Amino acid sequence: MYDMMNSALVGCIAITSTILIVVAQNAQNLRSPRDLERSVLISSGWWSDDYTKNISLDHCKWPGITCNSGGLVVGISFENCHPYHSLEDLNLHQVRHLIRVRLYDCGVGGIPAQIGALSELTYLNLSTNYLEGELSLSMANLIKLEVLDISFNHISGSIPQEMGNLSRLTYLNLQNNKIGGPIPSTFWQLTTLNTLWLSFNEISGSIPHELGQLSHLTNLDLSSNQFSGQICQIPHELGQLTHLTNLDLSSNQFSGQIPLELGQLSNLLFLDLSVNNLSGQIPPELGQLTHLTHLDLSSNQLVGQIPLELGQLSNLSFLDLSVNYLSGQIPYPSTDAPWSNLLILILRNNRLSGTIPIQIANFLLIRQIDLSGNLIEGQVPVDLGICQNAGFLDINLSHNKISGPIPPSLDLNLLELRHLVRVHLYNWGLGQRIPVQIGALSELTYLNLSCNYLTGELPLSMANLTKLERLDISRNHISGSIPAEMGILSNLTYLNLRNNSISGPIPSTLCQLTSLKDLRLSYNEINGSIPINIGNLTKLDYLCLGSNKITGTIPTSFHKLNHLRILILASNEITSQIPLELGQLSKLSFLFLSDNNFSGQIPYPSTNTSWTNLHKLILCNNRLTGTIPIQIARLPSILQIDLSGNSIEGHIPYELGRGENANLLNVNLSHNNLSGPIPQSLSHLQSLDLSYNALEGPIPLEVRSKFPKASFRNNNIVLDYTNFPLGAHEDQIQTKEKHQFYIKIFLPLALLLVLVGFFILYKLKSNKANPGQPLATEHGDIFKIWNFDGKIAYKDIIEATEDFDIRYCIGTGGYGSVYRAKLPNGRVVALKKLHRLEGENPTYDKCFKNEAKILSQIRHQNIVKLFGYCLHKRCMFLIYDCMERGSLFCVLRDEHEALELDWTKRVNLVKSIAHALSYMHHDCTPPILHRDVSTNNVLLNSKLEARLSDFGTARVLDPDSSNQTQIAGTLGYIAPEVAYTMIVNEKCDVYSFGVIALETISGSHPGEFISSITRRSTVKNIILQDFLDKRLPSPADLRVATDIVRVVSIALACLNPNPKSRPLMKEVAQEFLVNNPSGLSRPLHNLSISELMN
């Protein structure tokens, strides 16, 4: 028994010892949390070997590491890491005691999903990295988080609704990412939030009204997003955020009116609602924001007067209300609260009238005043410019109706303004010489005296303006030569002297201006050669020496101009070969060398360069020989190639037309000596002219069917496919097979379309027979089927206009009013409603029904579209497509809108009307005469594209009738022969078109000018440039200038007193279809009207 007990005891002791040994061994293998954190940090690769392999160095002393008293890591902070590291490699989720993490400009990859394990985290800043992917849902677990900044990354996706759980958050910054979707409605739970920055993302939808519950919010920035929708208005609940100091909702698509409740934000310092679609008036309640320093409401659709209450904002330093439709007087501060702190005042591009308030002269700290593009009259206040910052004052009063002298306070003779930095006197009509004293303004960095009537020479004293960076004296009457002393202006980056009468050579000293990026000397009388050391201007981006009398050759030093994008040497007398060194200019996008005496080969890109950015290659009207380089045909970005008017030989490269953007490429190879066949690849081009060459063989079907016959005239090619030469047997077979293929495909389709047509006619007749049967759903697309009796459309139209309430009236004519209506399907239409009294007049009734009849028969992209009409005795109206910008007459007479109608838009507008009239005269059977073509009847859409309208007096031309009629039309546009013959034909519309064309180009009705056309001696002295609309700058682009000359020439032909000598509208339209008219023989300021009449 005793032995058994002994044995048991010994066994227990052995087992216990074994267990203790195992436990001891395992205890040695277990690591403390400190050691585990060190191991994690080492494996991340974020720290160098100098730290990770130094065993004696405590990791709490590594850069960016913060530990608590127990040696556990509670903070990691890095910035400007090079190289960058992956955020996932840091294994933050294993450093569980972290309280603060700041990784600025360090990380790449995505935000780790495990980051939600850091339950103690209160501060997380991952801004300015290269993080991608979406916001991790696990971040909603960071319930102790107070600051979250993930700005300036590439985060996409939407903001998780779960982020509303972060109830302790005080600062949230997600700006400058790619985040989309709406703002989560759960954000109202972030009751401690004081800063919310979500700007520069792709957030859409509308602002949740619940944001108005974030009572602690002081900063709210939602700018530069995509907030939009039918109801995307600024919620009035934002007026409850009374602690708000900064509110930025700019650059979105908010519509509706500015909420009156914003006037309750009494602590607001910064308010920016610019670049939206806000309408209505500026609320006077904004005048209650007495702490406001910055107010920007620019680029909206605001109307009405500027509230005088804004004059109470005594702390205002920045006020921008530009690019709206504001009218009335310019606001000025109240006597009790002067704008003594105002630095910037921008009211440009509105409809403000009246005079400049004298109170503006009392703004002591003002640095910029921009009132340009308004209707301001009167004189400039004499004290304007006498202020504390007069030397730094930037004033722009251009494009107004200001008259009188320039006040002494702004006179360039004032030697006391020695600290003046900027002078902007564009289009002031100075009409004097540049004063010699201008050289005293030694601090000047910007000088713009363009579009005045300055005469005389450039003063030598300008060489003293050694700090000058931009100099623009273009579009004046400056004569003499360019002073060699201007080579001293070493800080000059922009020099524009174009459109003057400057003569003499280009001084070689200009090549010392090594900071120069933009040099424009075109449209002068400069002679001599291009300085050989022009290659010193290595920063040059834009060089324009066109339309001068420059001779000699292109210097080989051009290859040094590595940054050159635009090179214009057109219309000079430059000779010799084009240097192949131009092929080394890798950034070149525009190369214009036309109308010179160049000979030799066509330049092409070198083997080290691909001219990948070249858009336009214009070498026409020279003496170039050789063949077309294959490298030219392979240019990847080319949009226009014009090699016409040379002596180029050989075949057309088959690669031409095979590029990625061939469908946008315009090619003119006319008037050369090209031979061989026409490649089929040319069918991919947008436009093509191969006329006047020696090309052979048949034209490929795809090419012939796309381009007009004029593109191939005067060649040795087959234009008629029925008379092929015997050598074209293979092409005949291919063409026959293609014809058979097309017959198999399109004949069944044609038969099907005929059957469908008969079916539609049958249904229409059935509907006419049963007028009570609905033709469209009540709120469907009522414009798919004509509603001849108006029953279906009537209810929607009455509701949309509130029974033709005056509020929806946008215009009134002789016998009707025009209303704007938004229908249930969202379409906005214009309704031309006949007045009830006029409806009882047989003449007006006839005109109204005539317009409905004519427009229901024709369809053309440049004729206003008629969707339907109602001809009930009690209510007669026509339903048109709404033309938002109104008539051409009103646009040309509005100073602001006329500026939007630039030269290109005006030329396209004239072309559009020509095509519309050509369609009516020559494509309608029988022909239709408009009889009232005027600028009042040319309507413009939102893109300023033209549509011909008002066909009330239009009539069908009867070839078997004398076409005698009563006089119809608008005074000033009616052809003179109508008054004494009472006979109308298509030549009457041609005359009216000529008037419209000239009015569009000159900006006003050319009544007196037309009466003087018959007197050649009178128009002989009229220069074309003087006839152009003075509100627009003279066209810089040679192609645009050529188009203007073409429009004026055609218009003069249309105004010929002899109707038989006027062109047909078909001929006018075809002339406008020629893509490459002959170049100008001389600049616009050297062309007379009498020359164009020939």
Automatic annotation (TrEMBL):
Recorded GO CC terms: plasma membrane
Topology versus the membrane: Single-pass type I membrane protein
Keywords attached to this entry: ATP-binding, Glycoprotein, Kinase, Leucine-rich repeat, Membrane, Nucleotide-binding, Phosphoprotein, Receptor, Repeat, Serine/threonine-protein kinase, Signal, Transferase, Transmembrane, Transmembrane helix
Binding, ATP: K832
Keyword Transmembrane: yes
Catalysed reaction, written as an equation: L-threonyl-[protein] + ATP = O-phospho-L-threonyl-[protein] + ADP + H(+); L-seryl-[protein] + ATP = O-phospho-L-seryl-[protein] + ADP + H(+)
One of the GO biological process terms: post-embryonic development
Location of this chain's protein in the cell: Cell membrane; Membrane
Protein name per its UniProtKB record: non-specific serine/threonine protein kinase
